[in-house]
Amino acid sequence: MWKSFTWLNEPKEFSIQERLTFKTEGDTDFWRNTYYQFNRMTGHALLRPIPSTSFSCRIEVKLDPRQTYDQAGILLYLNEDHWLKVSAEFIPEGKSHLGAVVTSFGYSDWSSRDIENTVFDHPLTFELVFKNQDVELYFVDGETKEQLRIAHLHGEGDWKVGPYACSPNLEGQGCEVEILSFDCQER
């Protein structure tokens, strides 16, 4: 299944069998410029080219977060200036976040909503629908499909998509990630 995928920032520890498992490294993230005034393109992503202008992808991921901001989901990537991610982000002392980061022309734009930390007790499912550079992002919980974001991607070119995870905490030691399923279909 993973033969057409290549790493963007390969983690030190990973296994590619029927399921993909890996451990994130601390101080890894995908973020550009906005608000925090830093650029980090160090998160881990296993990506494959998408030849179609219309497709949908769904991931089921098990994240075992340890530190603040540990996260996992789907990354859609053109280059450092044009990409997006949809994921769950762990906040141990409060509510965690479901959200999306859309990056255009080198500036990241984050939208999120709070969710109970018990969400990490079970696998997380996210869906991405791409239609001619417009993207719909969803969190799927059983039979419920919640729209998290609609966005337009300005960059044009050869997009890649796949599972991603990172651990932005500077003191973090990383966390365990297991990709239970990842599927993309032309629409």
Which spans of ≥5 residues are poorly predicted at pLDDT below 50? none
Structural class per helix/strand content? mainly beta
What's the oligomerization state? single chain
- Major beta sheet, specifics? 7 strands, antiparallel
Task: Please describe what this structure looks like.
This protein has 187 residues and is mainly beta. The protein has a single domain (6-186), classed as Jelly Rolls (Sandwich), CATH 2.60.120. It is 0% helix and 60% strand.
SSE topology:
Elements: E1 6-8, E2 13-16, E3 20-23, E4 30-32, E5 39-41, E6 44-49, E7 54-64, E8 71-79, E9 82-89, E10 96-104, E11 107-115, E12 124-131, E13 134-141, E14 144-152, E15 160-166, E16 176-186
Antiparallel strand pairs: 1-6, 2-3, 3-16, 4-5, 6-15, 7-12, 7-16, 8-9, 8-15, 9-10, 10-11, 12-13, 13-14
Structural descriptors:
Jelly Rolls; 187 residues; 16 strands; 7-stranded antiparallel beta sheet; mainly beta
Summarize the structure.
The protein has 187 residues and is mainly beta. The protein has no helices and 16 strands. The protein has a single domain, classed as Jelly Rolls (Sandwich).
